[in-house]
């Protein structure tokens, strides 16, 4: 194979490319292609074949699709109508086919066939065969005549099984068929076939898969949209071709057939349309005899010059006349439910609903009908078609009380006439489903939507196609994005969750505690905190809040007694005349909320709301706005139960300069975390019974206030509380993110404010001009107290760390912090201190004797983020040195000592007791004890580079040494790069970690000993080719291999890309280990279990499941016990093939994952160095 810089593809460590016919049989037999890669063919003989038993792993993204194309396309010399410039992609599998050698039964292992163009055997008896993944893949300008007898399809699926994943695939301008299925059972979703010169889609030989969301557009010299056979020469051969296709859009050519079903094929076609062809449908041969049985059509509109051709006796026309929801004149039809579990619910006709999934990754300009070109569907049952259009679109009207499920599909506008109520009050319940891209509008101030208790609203928008609720003036172009408000009412959702405003005599939170909503919007409240009122995803409410009557003005969205079973994610309320969102009691939580331009309070709550909001962006209007938040427990009874007590994290308020940011009153509690308030006259007011909750049920942590006056009015109690909070700033300066995981429904984010810099979740679906208010915290000048000024390095101020830190110390970003020898935080369980390290901070070592030790009882809190990690590195790195690719051992490293159990004790002590302690390497202090849950702090987004020096002739340091560290310590997103000794080593303890990248380390990448019993998930190890030992070297204890507690960690989702002269995993000296979802490649040997003690643990304390080994030798040396175990292990492959993922332990630590390997591309981000 010749190489090309255009193609970055990894398979068992190799770089591969085309250049002629490439058959994937190299090493692990997996052709792995990175997102964004381009594979080029230059001649008609260039094509790729994936052989039976091999796989292609081509998993691109919408932003970085994988392209198979012609050389001239890369150089910009390709013409728009070019075709046949190279061959194509062929995938062979072991799934059943029906075209067999003579005497062989279809669907059997012996039923195989040679592919076109000498592309290899295919077929077999494994319908679930897995040939890999094609996701976001584009094949263009292919289909060459490999020889006079053979022309290739863009993609040929030959006997490919249902274990193969095919999603988001385009074939553009192929000289032969776009895609052809030769038998097999593979299915696909999101398929685009454009500009192909023969049939766009073809099948034969017994294909029995499915396709959903199929877009076909022919141009130039195309033939049929679909030409389909069972088998030429034996039309009833078994297994019969019998696919199901739903949601197809077919744009054909005049003079050609749209769909041609022949030679005994069946098909179940639903929710599709065909337009522009000379004829829409042609059915011949044995396929005619299948009409109404194995050949059915429903929910389909045909709009061609002729609906049916070659229909002797009118058999096809008669069938269509009685079929369910079929139009032969291009008219509107209603969707039907397709058969089979494969199909998603999609209540629209054609390939594209409200969300244009073809956007961004297909060949530019190839999809001419991104709106779907749908001939239309009628108004859903339960609505009425209006007599007039609005803004050129037909309108379906909703009116009165709707007591049956109703789905609003794209292609229509939906008008609310007056108060529209879904369901009765816990009777006649119904669900209103609103699909992506739908717009619902109100025409007058009395138009609003109410979801009754027991009913549900399911808004299924997307980032590309949000669901919009708005006013008619907006659709007519008469709304001002800045000032228009109150055009219609709003959305009210009533639930059965607890409230505290009850009829006289009723107890809050009980079934009897109910309340009538504003504007006669129905009863709400009850005793079901987990009640579900549906789900709201990507929903925008604009220009609402009208005065329904003189006493009642509506909120944009009113959540009235709504329960925690309701899902609210990505919701905006813009320019409401009253509050943006108000919670009246209930337990519902929300994430990704945007409130902009609302005339009263942006967010309000009362009546005992106890949910949470995370990622909340508030932009208040300058022309008309009140508080960013106004919050009560209950007016008239400020201590009513259940008390309003929500949790809010990652909020940004960009306020009105004449108003207050947040106002907590009338007995409400709140937990306010990781937030930023700026632009208001005053930032915060707490009054009434809420003042008595300060520090308990009303807490503020990790919040930066940036207003001319922080506290509203004369409020000494509030001022005193804020002054006592060491992680609250009153001058807009930086604060540290608080770990909120475990507080309600909140997750740990690692940043302050609603939007993290570089990751704007508001983009694309919201309206108006947003100020995301990403905090621009001023840099604190000078060195923190406890450090001393040093000479600048590369223009950056430096601060010298002391030898001993015995008081809490915070290292702020903007300086380099210099280690001088051994820096120790705290004494050994005395003079304890916390070293806090802000995001973006760099700590520097310059000498072999420079290292940092966290003593027992003290903590390090490293608050890095994905965009601003905490970095420990060498002076040469920050001082501009180049060519550090092989640099190691330039300074010491990081040592953390804890009080958790170990098994290497002084003589006479028992492992795991207080007396069992040990002195760390390089005189790094005592570790060990009896506190398994001990906390040594937090490491989040931390990178350690170029460490591992020889502190003295006897001692070489690890990048990070976790010595007796307990499970209360949080460790996430860590990289150790180019350490001279081990990357990370665990010396006993119980600490666990996620997201570890260990790269270029000279000794073992991961090591453990002394009784470590923690867990790891998502571990990526790449060993240095110039210097490396084992990927993992693991002991229980040298000298006492059965010491207790025994080293016995659990590791899931790990990749090891090893050194070709070393082992990948070495388990020895009595250690146990459970390994799941592991992928090992590149090492000389994959696995060694060494010593009688560890060998005796195989299958008991050493277990391996769902693991792929791809090494020159899997087992190191002569180890028949290990080999026998692997041969019988569950889903362990020894040829590099990919097994299915395992079900991971349900112990509260592991996230279930369907990935084998580290899945590093999903989490590495810019914070990881060198990958």
TrEMBL record:
UniProt keyword Ribosomal protein present: no
Signal sequence interval, chain numbering: 1-24
Swiss-Prot/TrEMBL keywords: Signal
Stretches the record annotates as Disordered: 626-652, 1027-1051
Biased composition (Basic and acidic residues): 1034-1044
Domain of life from the UniProt record: Bacteria
Protein name in UniProt: Uncharacterized protein
Source organism per UniProt: Pseudohalioglobus sediminis
């Amino acid at each position: 194979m010749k190489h090309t810089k255009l193609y970055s593809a990894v398979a068992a460590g190799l770089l591969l490319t085309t250049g002629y016919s490439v058959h994937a049989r190299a090493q692990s037999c997996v052709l792995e292609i990175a997102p964004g890669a381009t594979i080029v063919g230059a001649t008609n003989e260039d094509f790729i074949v994936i052989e039976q038993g091999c796989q292609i792993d081509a998993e691109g993204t919408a932003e970085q699709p994988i392209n198979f194309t012609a050389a001239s396309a890369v150089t910009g010399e390709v013409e728009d109508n070019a075709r046949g410039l190279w061959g194509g992609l062929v995938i062979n599998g072991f799934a059943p086919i029906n075209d067999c050698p003579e005497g062989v039964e279809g669907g059997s292992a012996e039923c195989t066939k040679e592919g076109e163009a000498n592309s290899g055997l295919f077929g077999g008896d494994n319908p679930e065969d897995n040939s890999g993944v094609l996701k976001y893949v584009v094949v263009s300008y292919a289909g060459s005549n490999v020889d006079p007898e053979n022309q290739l399809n863009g993609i040929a699926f030959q006997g490919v099984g249902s274990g193969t994943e095919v999603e988001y695939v385009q074939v553009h301008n192929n000289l032969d068929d776009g895609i052809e299925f030769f038998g097999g059972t593979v299915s696909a979703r999101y398929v685009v076939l454009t500009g192909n010169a023969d049939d766009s889609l073809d099948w034969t030989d017994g294909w029995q898969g499915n396709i959903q969301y199929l877009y076909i557009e022919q141009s130039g010299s195309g033939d049929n949209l679909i030409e389909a056979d069972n088998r030429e020469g034996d039309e009833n051969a078994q297994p019969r071709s019998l696919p199901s296709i739903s949601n197809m859009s077919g744009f054909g050519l005049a003079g050609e057939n749209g769909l041609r079903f022949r030679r005994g094929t069946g098909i179940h076609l639903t929710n599709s349309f065909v337009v522009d062809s000379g004829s829409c449908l042609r059915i011949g041969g044995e396929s005619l005899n299948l009409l109404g049985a194995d050949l059915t059509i429903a929910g389909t509109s045909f709009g061609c010059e002729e609906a049916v051709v070659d229909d002797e006796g009118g058999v096809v026309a008669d069938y269509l006349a009685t079929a369910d929801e079929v139009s032969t004149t291009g008219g509107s039809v209603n969707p039907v439910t397709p058969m089979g579990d494969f199909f998603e619910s999609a209540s629209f006709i054609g390939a594209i609903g409200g969300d244009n999934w073809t956007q961004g990754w297909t060949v530019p300009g190839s999809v001419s009908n991104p709106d779907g070109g749908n001939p239309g569907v009628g108004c859903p049952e339960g609505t009425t078609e209006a007599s007039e259009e609005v803004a050129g679109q037909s309108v379906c009207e909703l009116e009165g009380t709707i007591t049956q499920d109703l789905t609003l599909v794209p292609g229509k506008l939906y008008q609310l006439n007056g108060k529209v109520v879904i369901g009765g009050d816990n009777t006649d319940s119904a669900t209103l489903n609103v699909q992506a891209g739908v717009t619902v509008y109100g025409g007058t101030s009395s138009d609003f939507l109410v979801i009754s208790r027991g009913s549900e609203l399911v808004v299924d928008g997307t980032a590309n196609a949000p669901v919009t609720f708005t006013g008619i003036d907006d659709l007519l172009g008469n709304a001002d994005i800045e000032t228009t408000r109150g055009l219609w009412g709003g959305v009210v959702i009533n639930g059965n969750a607890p409230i505290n405003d009850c009829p006289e005599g009723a107890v809050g939170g009980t079934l009897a505690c109910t309340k009538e909503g504003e504007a006669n919007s129905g009863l709400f409240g009850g005793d079901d905190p987990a009640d579900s009122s549906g789900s709201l995803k990507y929903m925008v409410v604009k220009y609402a809040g009208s005065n329904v009557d003189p006493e009642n003005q509506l909120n944009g969205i009113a959540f009235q007694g709504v329960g925690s079973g309701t899902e609210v994610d990505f919701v905006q309320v813009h320019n409401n005349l009253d509050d943006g969102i108000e919670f009246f009691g209930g337990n519902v939580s929300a994430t990704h909320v945007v409130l902009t331009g609302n005339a009263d309070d942006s967010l309000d709550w009362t009546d005992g709301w106890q949910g949470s909001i995370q990622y909340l962006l508030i932009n208040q209007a300058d022309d008309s706005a009140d508080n960013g938040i106004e919050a009560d427990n209950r007016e008239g009874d400020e201590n009513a139960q259940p008390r309003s007590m929500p949790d809010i994290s990652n909020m940004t308020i960009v306020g009105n300069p004449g108003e207050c940011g947040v106002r907590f009153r009338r007995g409400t509690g709140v937990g306010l975390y990781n937030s930023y308030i700026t632009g208001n006259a005053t930032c915060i007011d707490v009054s009434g019974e809420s003042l008595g909750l300060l520090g308990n049920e009303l807490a503020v942590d990790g919040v930066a206030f940036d207003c001319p006056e922080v506290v509203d009015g004369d409020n000494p109690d509030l001022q005193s509380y804020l002054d006592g909070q060491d992680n609250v700033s009153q001058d807009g300066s930086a604060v540290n993110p608080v770990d909120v995981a475990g507080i309600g429904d909140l997750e740990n984010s690692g940043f302050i404010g609603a939007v993290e810099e570089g990751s704007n979740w508001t983009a694309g679906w919201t309206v108006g001009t947003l100020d995301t208010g990403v905090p621009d915290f001023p840099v604190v000048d000078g060195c923190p107290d406890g450090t001393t000024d040093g000479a600048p390095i590369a223009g950056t101020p430096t601060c010298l760390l002391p030898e001993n830190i015995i008081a809490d110390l915070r290292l702020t970003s903007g300086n380099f912090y210099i280690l001088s020898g051994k820096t120790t935080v705290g004494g050994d369980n005395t003079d304890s201190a916390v070293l806090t390290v802000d995001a973006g901070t760099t700590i520097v070592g310059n000498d072999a004797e420079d290292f940092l030790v966290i003593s027992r009882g003290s903590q390090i809190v490293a608050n890095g983020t994905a965009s601003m990690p905490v970095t420990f590195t060498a002076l040469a790195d920050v001082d501009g040195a180049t060519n550090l690719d092989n640099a190691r051992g330039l300074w010491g490293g990081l040592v953390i000592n804890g009080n958790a159990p170990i098994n290497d004790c002084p003589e006479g002590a028992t492992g795991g007791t207080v007396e069992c302690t040990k002195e760390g390497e390089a005189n790094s202090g005592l570790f060990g004890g009896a506190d398994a849950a001990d906390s040594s702090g937090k490491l989040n987004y931390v990178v350690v580079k170029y460490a591992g020096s020889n502190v003295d002739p006897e001692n070489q340091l690890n990048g990070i040494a976790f010595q007796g560290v307990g499970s209360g310590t949080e460790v996430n997103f860590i990289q150790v790069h180019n350490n001279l000794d081990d990357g990370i080593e665990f010396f006993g303890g119980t600490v666990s970690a996620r997201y570890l990248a260990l790269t270029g380390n000279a000794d073992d990448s991961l090591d453990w000993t002394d009784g470590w019993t923690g867990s790891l998930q998502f571990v990526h190890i790449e060993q240095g080719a110039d210097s490396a030992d084992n990927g993992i070297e693991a002991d229980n204890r040298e000298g006492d291999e059965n010491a207790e507690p025994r080293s016995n960690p659990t590791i899931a989702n790990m990749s090891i890309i090893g050194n070709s002269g070393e082992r990948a995993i070495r388990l020895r000296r009595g250690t146990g280990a459970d390994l799941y979802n592991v992928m090992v490649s590149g090492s000389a040997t994959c696995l060694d279990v060494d010593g009688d003690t560890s060998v005796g643990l195989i299958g008991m304390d050493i277990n391996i499941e769902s693991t792929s080994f791809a090494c020159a030798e899997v087992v190191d040396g002569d180890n028949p016990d290990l080999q026998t175990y692997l041969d019988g292990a569950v889903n362990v492959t020894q040829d590099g093939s990919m097994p299915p993922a395992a079900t991971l332990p349900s112990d509260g630590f592991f996230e279930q994952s369907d990935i084998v390997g580290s899945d590093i591309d999903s989490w590495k981000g810019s914070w990881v160095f060198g990958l």
